[in-house]
Amino acid sequence: MLNRIISCLYPVSTLAALLLVWYAAVKIFRVPPYLLPLPGDVIQRMREDFWFLLHHSWITIYITLGGFLLSIAFGVPLAIVLVASRVLERAVMPWLILSQTFPKVALAPLIVVWFGLGLGPKFVITFLVAFFPILISTIVGLRSIEREMLELASSVRANTLQMFFHFRLPVALPNIFAGTKVPIALSVVGAVIAEWVGANVGLGYLLLQANANLDTTLLFAVLIVLLIIGVVFYYAVEFVERLVIPWHSTIRLQNVTA
Amino acid sequence: MAQPITVHGVSKAFGVGKGSIEALRDIDLEVSAGEFVAIVGASGCGKSTLLRLVGGLMEPTNGQVRIGGKVVREPGPGIGIVFQTPVLLPWRTVQQNVQLPLDIQRCGKEPKRIAELLALVGLRGFEHSRPYELSGGMQQRVALCRALVTNPSLLLMDEPFGALDALTREQMNLELQRVWMETGKTVLLITHSITESVMLADRVVVMSPRPGRIQEIIEIGLPRPRDFSSLRDPEFHSACERIRMLMNASGFVE
């Protein structure tokens, strides 16, 4: 327990040092608040506008989570189909890999043209950002089964369904989880960009508003809220991972070192 | 009921055309019901391939494998396989791992039988451990229990003790001999340890590489049960020497 507290002390003191530098810089160089507000002012603003920020956060969280869950709901089954069908895989996989290099957020304006300004297009944009990494890590996971494991499965005469549920899927789970940790952070990015393109509510919209009004304190407050949302989502995924695959080595080793 | 194995004129090639590799050529082998046969040979002599053909995990390019008169085309019932690595499922406990073949074949749970098997290999009390909590030797013993849980009449083992340290390996050899003597199964053991083959087998099949062929089959007439004090026996010694000579003649020894 004491070790844990001490190991927390290091990053916390880094944060304290950064805040101090921030504070000192503003004071010494007399930076005007519209360029860089004081940390204390930002905290103050977050307190004052708590319900206001929460209202906008709620929408952004909703979009993030919706897009993320959609990309799991489509990505995992599609990966299963692609791994099962050699023909489909060969036809589609090169394009999927190529699509990794394409900036999906650049499609946002087009999606607004097609789907309008409601929640729908925002889910689509977030979905597009998170979908491909989830798809590809699931494919990699499903393929990562060792030869002897497959031979074991066939020697105990597992049928196709048993092969999948008793062997392939559990073997793939660590990769699937590893592949959802990046997309959960990307989903937040997707949601913010979706709100930039056309919205009248949400943290992305709030960022634009704060920017237009040169309300830099609010801008910082929103950034901190986004940071908190990202971190909470990340650890939520990790929490689910611990529940589902407690047997996996990355989790066991974390428990030993923590 | 143990069943005999007949391997008749079996060849196996991987790939087609110019790039194809001939792994096995003209293999003929008869294994009687209840016999313990070991197959030794340098790496690349196709001994693991032969085991997979017998287990129905692969089909021969030419020839036939029969178990109890029936041609093998896919893994049949009544066969237990132990692989080079334990391949335990990390999300299952020891007990659940042993139970796996029963779950797949929907045979119902047999906790009593599993407990007996685990006791037989000295793993009483580890039923609820996870595979990663066990040493390599213990994991391989769990794999042996899993292969035995359906009470197969044929046990196929592909260098099962290759990754173990010398002492654990000797213990496992003795345990395997005991299991075999108690249950009367047909056993096919692939190994690259000459001592292990002579220690355990009724007959040792020596294979030579590129392409894999049977070089000679040596009868081991030593009385049972054997133990490692038999190592000093002149017959044990001469059998080992004979096999070593054959393997040297065919190339190299591991």
Keywords:
heterodimer, A: MetI-like fold, 11 helices, globular, B: 254 residues, alpha/beta, Rossmann fold, six-stranded mixed beta sheet, four-stranded antiparallel beta sheet
Largest sheet of chain A: none
**Percentage of residues assigned to helices of chain B:** 25-40%
Average pLDDT of chain B, to the nearest integer? 86
Low-confidence stretches of chain B: none
CATH topology (fold) name of chain A = MetI-like fold
Which stretches of chain A are poorly predicted, pLDDT < 50 over at least 5 residues? none
Task: Explain what you see.
The complex is a heterodimer of chains A (258) and B (254). With 258 residues, chain A is mostly helical. Chain A has a single domain, classed as MetI-like (MetI-like fold), CATH 1.10.3720.10. Helix content of chain A is 84%, strand content 0%. Chain A has eleven helices and no strands. Chain A has helices at 2-29, 39-48, 50-84, 86-100, 108-115, 119-143, 147-155, 160-197, 203-212, 216-244, 249-257. Chain A is globular and about 75 Å long. Chain B has 254 residues and is an alpha/beta fold. Chain B has two domains: 1-78 and 154-168 and 182-254, P-loop containing nucleotide triphosphate hydrolases (Rossmann fold, 3-Layer(aba) Sandwich), CATH 3.40.50; 85-151, no CATH class. Chain B is 33% helix and 24% strand. Chain B has helices at 47-55, 94-104, 111-120, 136-148, 166-183, 194-200, 234-249, and strands at 5-14, 21-31, 36-41, 62-67, 70-71, 79-82, 154-158, 186-190, 203-208, 213-219. Chain B has a six-stranded mixed sheet, sandwiched between helices. In chain B, strands 2-1-4-5 form a four-stranded antiparallel sheet, covered by helices on one side. In chain B, helix 2 (94-104) packs parallel to helix 4 and helix 6 crosses helix 7 (234-249). Chain B is globular, with a radius of gyration of 18 Å. At the A-B interface, helix 7 and helix 8 of A face strand 6 and helix 2 of B.
